[in-house]
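Provenance and format

Records in this collection were gathered into a single text stream. Each protein contributes a sequence line and a token line. The two records reproduced below are adjacent in the stream.
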Amino acid sequence: MGLGLTFHICPSNVPINFAYSLAFALLAGNSCVLRLSSKSNRATEIVLQTLTDLINKPENFSIAKRILLLSYQYNDDISAFWFSKAAGKVIWGGDSTINKMRQFPTPPRSREVAFADRYSFCVINAEYVLSIDNNQLQSECQNIFNDIYQLDQAGCSSPQLCIWVGSNNSILQAKGKIWQNVSIIAAKKRTDVNDIQVLNKFVNTCDAIIDHDQVTKVDIISPQLTLITVDKLNIAQHQFRGTSGQIYEASIQSLDELVPLINEKVQTLSYLGIDKYALQELIINNNLTGIDRIVPTGKALNMHNLWDGYDIIAGLSRTITIE
């Protein structure tokens, strides 16, 4: 059974995220009030029009009655009203957003599903890259491109850091193959890169050189791709984020070297040419508090009801026991 009325604070960094949040809450059996970002976005408009067309059909009237979509500049009075009625609340956003929304009183049994600020990275086996043929290489590079550029690294599961595993020589060769092909794909498919994005990447890169003690090299491959090399992984790496094709890189010889990087901030680990069960054992054997998702490259942005370690539908449902 559903909890009842759910109130959702939806993010602006992933324009159609609200549609997933709505779907999960409806599938759990709830009524839904969603606060959408007030920022205009073409993708959001398309989804809203499609949703409107669907709920206006007579056969969907029972579902339409359970949906209210709102768009307003942050207003404490409006938010407080809906939180006061919410049997369940879903908060997408940064840590500050979550902390602010938790200040509003809710019913005593109100359930919360909150998605905080997270960090994601990928791990690539250099020897695997060198062993595959050109067709497979092109496919793998397309997957890496999708993970990085679909949301311009704005999503919490978008990779910010690429970690190469192997010998120095194999890593050097593998990097050349991967980034050359990714940059070609990006040049063809991301012709909409604007001056502001390029300038923001340049400023971020300068900040990284100043603030990150481990930065050893910067390669501005193209307007679409900038690579920042760090010589050591540390637990503070999540503080350094890329945008629009700005990737931090590091090299390791053993997966055990990942341990200092992983804390509760880390959400998605995507992999290429790595045994996923070895990654699973790494997490379990070291009692790591981070990583909720281990997925192949190309699937970092795939959305399903298991997210950030939550079963969202179960979290927005109640179970009646009958003996």
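Adjacent record:
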Amino acid sequence: MGGPGDPPEGTPEGGPGGGEDEYRSVVFDESFVRAARLQEFSAQERMADHAPAVRRRPPLRRGLSRQALVLVLLIAIAFGTAIYMGVRHPYQAPTASEPVEPLRMTVIPLAPEGKVPGTADPAYLYEHSPAAQFKTGAEGVPLPASRRTAHFSDSQVVSALTTAKDYIIRSALDPEVLTGGEVRAVRVLLDPDQLDQFDQSFARPTADGRHAPTGWLVRFDPSRAELADRRVRVQGTLQAAEADSSTLEVTADHTFVYALRPAGAGDKAEVSLFTLRRELHFRFDRDDLRLHQAQLVVSYVQAGPLSCAEDSTNHLRPLLAGQTAKEGGPAGTDPYATGSATALCGSLATSAQPKV
């Protein structure tokens, strides 16, 4: 006998065996039915209107899926944001940078009026000199309180001051630089447009106000003198101001006091003090601020005790304890005092020397 679902006569000949229906795998779910283009009228509809058995259904209007709607919304938001940022961009458009000025430098030797005082104890010299209250090393180059300007933020002003401070420390306090060996630590802080002038100054030093190594940094003739105390005394100021809408300027005015003794003389040799007042003018555009670089445009140095007859272009050749200058200049130039500019050569004021 056939099964409950089989025809009384059994499975038709030639049909699939085992009672399997060839359409059994087709699933007529709700979505399949709704998608059909033909729809059969109900018996009541056919009796009332004598309508055909079927009618054609209008095509379904498929809506966008939720994921597609979210994607379209995100694209619209991104497009609107791009338009807004293009109209009101938070960053200033890059402007054509001004050509970098070459460094203008002046190095004025100050000759002592008598013998250079000295003693074997550097601390004693400092205590009995105008540098007694000076700070030591980088502590003597503090950053001032900074304020934003019309076109530069607080962080940009701090960046300019910090770069200027780093330049001062590396060029006037680093023992490797002071002894005449290291220059790269100073070079890397300069704007790339000034590197040719910097390199020419050290390759071919010239007293032309443009190419003197001692205009870029402080260094002593290693055959003449060496540091008796690596803790250099410093006092001075840093000031930042806006030059124009694209340029910040920093002015540095510091007095440095070094304890020196004759090169190779040993710890028991007499020590003398060497005083150097240095005024630097830095300039920064936005690229300099971003790259931690500076344009050094003015370097004005007064230093002594030096002999006016000595060439101070490449190295400073200090007069040491007990030595005298062969010739001097206008009397009474004090590197500790501000506003005492001197031309060509000056005379180191007695008040600037330690009392021994």
